[in-house]
Design goal:
The protein is of the alpha/beta class. It has one domain (about 25-245): TIM Barrel, CATH 3.20.20.370. It contains nine helices and twelve strands. The strands form three sheets. Strands 1, 2, 3, 6, 8, 9 and 12 form a seven-stranded mixed beta sheet that branches. The radius of gyration is 20 Å and the shape is globular. The relative contact order is 0.18.
Length: about 250
């Protein structure tokens, strides 16, 4: 009798575990925002919190942030978001300036962000690219390096393997632009989300300003919420760059 009861209880526990596992949300999207649009990002804090989405905000020109903006960023960090580096003055890395780039763009930006109280382990390359030499140098300062692309071929973005990455101690990956001017349909995005979940990878996305202007390099709150709804539908959560690497710099 006791054996039968024990077997029944074990079976019930296994069933509950399977049900919970099937409904569990898994993080498969890295949503990032570039530049220093702190006020616009912060204005959508409730939207991020309502869907429990965590993002990484890459800051450029940190020396120009106001005290109020610094406090807003700290609140976002307390919400679970990450602050990354996007260079001191948003200078593009080229063959000509690559040897001075770390001293001119990286170290000063990191020092300023550190003085503000932010621990930074992720970097988004200004204008989306870096030289091979700079890539090797950046690994001394960051565990996550993010490049940028857009839907050049005007096709399903799931066909760009470079915008997917895996959990690792170091990531050097590309990201797909989803601003208004990139004209990525929600069906296209949903297809990319599904691929990330099916392949157990992370889809990396980037945008800039969050507002309703429909100007280049903006993304509307409505579009962002539709993305969050699609993520919720497929039980997909948002991960920070540091969450993927662990934030340990070699």
């Amino acid at each position: 009798m006791r054996s039968s009861i024990f077997s029944l209880c074990t079976l019930c526990m296994l069933c509950v575990f399977c049900i919970l596992s099937c409904k569990r949300t898994e993080n498969h999207v890295i949503i990032t925002f570039d530049d220093a649009n702190v006020d616009e990002w912060f204005a959508q804090r409730e939207l991020f919190n309502n869907y429990n989405i965590k993002a990484t905000f890459f800051i450029t020109c940190p020396h120009k942030l106001t005290n109020e903006q610094i406090e807003k960023l700290k609140i976002l960090v307390n919400d679970g978001h990450e602050i990354g580096c996007h260079g001191l003055n948003h200078v593009k890395a080229t063959e000509e300036n690559q040897y001075q780039y770390i001293e001119a763009e990286i170290i000063p930006a990191l020092m300023i962000l550190s003085d503000y109280g932010f621990t930074v382990t992720s970097f988004a390359c200004p204008f989306g690219s870096a030289t091979p030499y700079l890539d090797s140098m950046l690994t001394n300062y960051f565990s996550f390096i993010r490049k940028a692309t857009y839907n050049i071929r005007d096709t399903l973005i799931s066909t760009y393997p470079e915008i997917y990455t895996h959990k690792a101690q170091f990531c050097n990956t590309n990201a797909m632009g989803i601003d208004y001017n990139y004209n990525i349909s929600m069906d296209n995005l949903e297809d990319a989300l599904i691929k990330a979940k099916q392949t157990n990878t992370f889809l990396v996305l980037y945008a800039h300003v969050i507002d309703d202007s429909n100007e280049d390099y903006t993304i509307s709150p409505q579009y962002l919420e539709e993305l969050f709804k699609k993520m919720k539908k497929h039980r997909i959560g948002g991960e920070t760059c540091r969450g993927v690497t662990g934030g340990i710099v070699k």
